[in-house]
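task queued by scheduler; priority normal; single chain, no ligands, no partner chains; default sampling; output format set to structure tokens
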Amino acid sequence: MRRPRFAPTFRPRDPRLGPKGLAIGIDIGGTKVAAGVVDAAGRVLRRARRATPGTQPREVERVITELVEELSTAHRIASVGIGAAGWMDLEGGTVLFSPHLVWRNEPLRANLEKLLRRRVHLANDADAAAWAEWRFGAGQRESRLVCITLGTGIGGGMVMSGRLERGRYGVAGEFGHQVIVPGGHRCECGNRGCWEQYASGNALGREARELARANSPVAQELLRAVGGNPERITGAVVTELAQAGDAASMELLEEVGEWLGLGLANLAAALDPGTFVIGGGLCDAGELLLAPARRAFARNLTGRGFRPQARIVRAALGTEAGLIGAADLSRVNFRSDRSLRRGVGGRGVATPAT
């Protein structure tokens, strides 16, 4: 009989304190694999990175192994945490599906533990970021936290009463695929009108390119910024111009912010969190994005005027939230399993293997 694994439910009295020991966190993205040695206070002591080596699982495992070996030379490491885009099984051993890599029912944890000969914890990257923001960032001391990551698409994670909430089958938090405009833009998931088609970095870039292709007078700054080629316009280009005061770029960001606020109002109706933490690359726009999001949220919130409103705040940990959360989750999980072996009843709630 397999030993049950614990869900990460440890919640110290002071969120800055946690199980002792150093852990390595690794964040696997479509273009890079970032890694760091993280202490119990969420500080990154040492960093390393590699380019993502194509899409083959064995090649990605090789890069992860290299990074762990490099970072372990100067530190004694208790555990390793991996954060990756995709759906993980409830036990946290298998990547059911990953959009960036050809992982389909891939037993990643077992493969890596065999290669590394040490403990490995596997998590969805947005879940890892949510955990990091709750433990060390903008969501500290929040009993019901929803974290939204805005990048190419929209990711999400939830920490409820000190527990990373992953749903019955381990795939909760796919907020970007709520259908917000029936029959709208086609999404990579196969549906139409998903939220991430209207409130993500990709959506911002797409809308700006359409404006530029029409050679609109208001798009001239956008075209100048990319040498007259509208296909080179990205969400990052629009954000930079908006911060410099370009009116068209500011208007485009405001529209994306309004879509963001509408989706958050839908989530508030279902989940009733105390705080939404908004992270990801698109948040470089700051209040140019979040101010219209808050207005749209207040305008569309169910029961508005007769209920408390969730806070909407910018994430505090930036691009390292994923690796910090992955490392901390591995440390907390390692502590829970050691308690189980000693026969110590912890505060955690066991999640049986499925």
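post-processing summary
- The chain has nine helices and 15 strands.
- Residues 5-132+318-351 form a domain with the Nucleotidyltransferase; domain 5 fold (CATH 3.30.420.40).
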